[in-house]
Amino acid sequence: METKYIVLIGVILLYIVVVYLFSLLAVKRDIGKRRLFWISLFLTPVIGLAFLLSSQHRKLNLYTEKRFECEECGYVFSEPHEYCPFCEKEGHKHTLKPVNMYMT
Ligand SMILES: [Zn+2]
Question: How much distance in Å is there from the Cα of 55 to the middle of ligand 1?
């Protein structure tokens, strides 16, 4: 009787470990490690795999870079300047506006 319970608990623990290791695959995905872990735990890793494959790589759509745009001439600089160097040459002083640009 007791051996039965030990085997059962062992199987459950093994299942959780397998699901946990499987969820590590989602670290760089949109779905995330924790969400995939819970989906796989309750709906089996087969369903989890479907979720994993349909979620995109995180870096592709979340990578942004800070740039500085001149609202006057529209030029975008990668380095911060006090005033737009191009407009300054022509005698105007325009401050640069920090913007987040999406990189692909
Ligand atoms: Zn300018």
Answer: 41
